[in-house]
Amino acid sequence: MTPLPIPRVPWTSAVLLAALGAGTVRAGRRLRAVPVLPAAPSAAAGVPRAAGWRLLTARGVEADAATFLSACAHAEREGLRVLDLLPADLPAERALGLLRLVDPARYQADRLGEGRGAGFAVLAAEEVLARAGVDPDGPRPGPAELLALTRRLKEYAAGATGLAIAPALSCGPQPETTGPARAAELRAHGLPPGALAAAQLAGLALLAGAVVRQGRWGAAAAGLYWLQPYLALGGPGSPLRPADLARATAARPVRSLGAAVRTAAAARRGGGGEPVSGRAAAYRADLAAGTDRFFEARRPDCPWCGSGRLAVRVRVPDLLQGKPGRFALERCQDCGHVFQNPRLSPEGLEFYYRDFYDGRGGEGAGTVFGRLGPSYRARAEMLRGHVGGAGPESWLDVGTGHGHFCNAAREVWPGTRFDGLDMGDGILEAERRGWVETGYQGQFPEFASKLAGRYEVVSMYHYLEHTRDPLAELDTAAAALAPGGFLTVEVPDPESRMADLLGGAWLPWFQPQHQHLVPAANLREALADRGFTVLVEEHGAAHQGNDFFGAVALTAARLAPDPDRPWGPPATPRARARASLVRTAALPCFAAAAALDTLRSTAARLTDGGNAYRVLARKDTP
C-alpha cells in the first residue's frame, strides 16, 4: 500500500500560521483570565467602602454608581490600589492590542511591569493619586492621557494594580481613530509608533506575498489573520462584546493597512526636530567653549596600583548619546585595571550624564531598567543561605537610580527595609513611589559618618564602574555595614573575551560614563584589605545578554546619530533620511544579534564566563 504523501508547507506560511495561531490562542486565554465585575456588589460582600477611592473616566465615558461600587469592592477584596476598567464594548483591535501587551495572570504580581489599560476608566486610591501628584478633579482626560496616567499610577502601586471588565461600562460613540490619535496612544503605552507601524506594514506585506506566491497555504495564513478578532473575542461566553467586532473582522486587512499608514505618517510628523528651546540653547552655550574643559589632565600612573606601565585599551566617541568628544580607556600592564584617562571632570560628568537617566532619556532608561526583573531577583537571591530565613532587616542599594532593584527585590525579601542612594533626582521619585523607604541624594562617601554601622546589606550593582574613586566607595561601604554584614558588588568584567572580539563596540565600555573597570582579582584583594571575606563569586550568572545586540545598537548610533538630539546640529532632511535608512538596515542585524546573544548567554552560564561578575562578601567581626 502506497503511503499518502505528506503535504509540504512553505516555511513562510508555516511560520505565519504558527505565529497567528499562537497569538489567537494566547489572546483568548488572556481574555478569559481578566476578572469580570458583577453588575453590583453581592449582598454577602457587605456594603463596599467607596471612601478613599476615585474613578477617573475619559471624556465621553460615564460610569454608574453600581459599577463604581462594584469596582471598589473588587479592589478591596484583591488588595488593589489601582484598577483599570475595560468597557464591555471595547473596540476589537484595541482589545487585541491590550491582550498582546498584558498577561492578566501575571500583571498584578509583576512589580516592574508597565502599567497598561484600555484608556476609558481607572479606579485609584486617593493616597496613590496624591503621591503621584494627580489631581482627580482636573479636566477629564482623553484616551491617550488616561493610558499614560494608568502607566504612571502602576509605578506608585507596583504590586497592587489590576484589570477588570466592567459589563455595564460603555466606551460611548467611537469615531474612527486618526493617525495622530493612534500614535499618541502608542506613545502613552511607552511604545514607538513609527517602529510599530513599520512592523505592521512589513507583516501585511509578508502576508500578501504569501498569498500570491504560496497558494492555499498563504491563503490559510491570511484567512487566519482576517478572522483573528472573531476567533479571539467572539463566540459564546466571551466577557467582551466589541460593538465593532463584525466590521473589524470583515474589513481587517483594509483597516489595518490604513491604520498603519496613518500612524507612520503621524509618527514622522510628530518626530520632527526639537524646536529651539531652553534645553538646546543650554547645550549650545556649554559647547561654545569646546569640550577640553570637561577633562582633567591625563594621569601618568595607575589609580589602583600606581604603576606607570599604561597602554590604551580602546578609544571611542560618545556612542550612547552622540555628544561631542572622544574618550580613552587605558589598561595597567601590571594589575590589569582599566580606567578612563584623561577622566572627566565633575563638570564633564554632569554634561555627559545629562538627559540620559533623567530628562530627555529618562523614559527610555526607565523602560530598560524595568525589563531586568529576573536579573534583579537573581541578585537578591544571592543572599540565600547566608542570612536568616526571614532575610536581612536593612539593605542599602547604592547607585539605585529610580529604585528598580529595590522594587523587584521585595518579591524575594518582603520583610526587608530597602533604602537607596543616588546622585540624581530619581532617588526622590523612588521614595515617593514607595520603591525605597528612605532615599539619600548625593555622593556615597558624603554619608559615611551618617550611615555608619546601620545596614546588614549594602549593594553596588553596576555602580562602582561609574565612580571617580572606587576604593573610597568600598571604604564607605565597609563603614556603613554592621559587623557581620554583607557587601554585594556587580561590575562589568574587563577580562571578558567579548571585549577583544567587539573592540570599541563592546557595550560595557559604556563611554563616557564608566570611569573604572576592575578585574575580579583586584576587587577580591581590595575587599580583603578592608576586612571582608569573599563568600561567593559568580561570572556566568551575572552575564548580561547584550553583547551582540549592544554592538549593533552602538554601531547604528555611530553611523547615524539621532537627528533630533538637542546637543547636535539642526536636523536636516538628509540627516533624517540617513537615520531612517540605517535603522531600517539594522533591523535584520538586531534579529541576528538577539539570536547570537541567546547562544552567548547559554555558553556564559555553562562556562561561568560572561561580560560581568558579582561577588558577595562578609564584613569580618573584629
Topology of helices and strands:
Blueprint lengths: L10 H23 L19 E5 L7 H14 L3 E6 L4 H10 L2 H4 L13 E5 H6 L11 H14 L4 E6 L12 H10 L4 H21 L1 H19 L11 H6 L1 H19 L7 H11 L21 E8 L8 E7 L5 E3 L5 H8 L8 H9 L2 H9 L12 E5 L5 H6 L7 E6 L3 H8 L5 E3 L13 E7 L8 H11 E12 L4 H6 L13 E2 L2 H10 L2 E7 L8 H13 L13 H35 L4 E8 L3
Parallel strand pairs: 2-4, 8-9, 8-11, 9-10, 11-12
Antiparallel strand pairs: 1-3, 2-3, 5-6, 6-7, 7-13, 12-15, 14-15
InterPro entries: SAM-dependent_MTases_sf
Protein name: Methyltransferase type 12
Keywords: Methyltransferase, Transferase
Class based on secondary structure composition and strand pairing:
alpha/beta
Percentage of residues in helical conformation: 40-55%
The number of E-state strands comes to 15
Strand order, biggest sheet?
Answer: 10-9-8-11-12-15-14
Q: What is the overall silhouette?
A: globular
Low-confidence stretches: 271-276
CA radius of gyration is 27 Å
Q: Roughly what is the average pLDDT, rounded to an integer?
A: 91
**Number of DSSP helical runs:** 22
How far apart the termini lie comes to: 86 Å
Count of domains: 3
Describe the biggest sheet?
7 strands, mixed
The fraction of residues assigned to DSSP E strands is 5-15%
Can you give a write-up of this model?
It comes from Streptomyces subrutilus. Keywords: Methyltransferase, Transferase. One of its GO terms (biological process) is methylation. GO terms for molecular function: methyltransferase activity. 44% of the residues lie in helices and 14% in strands. It is α/β, with parallel strands linked by helices and 622 residues long. The chain has three domains: 24-270, no CATH class; 293-353, N-terminal domain of TfIIb (Single Sheet), CATH 2.20.25; 360-494 and 503-543 and 608-619, 3-Layer(aba) Sandwich (Rossmann fold), CATH 3.40.50.150. Strands 10-9-8-11-12-15-14 form a seven-stranded mixed β-sheet, with helices on both faces. A four-stranded mixed β-sheet has the order 1-3-2-4, with helices on both faces. Strands 5-6-7-13 form a four-stranded antiparallel β-sheet, with no helix packed on it. Strand 11 (455-461), helix 18 and strand 12 (481-492) form a beta-alpha-beta unit. The relative contact order is 0.08.
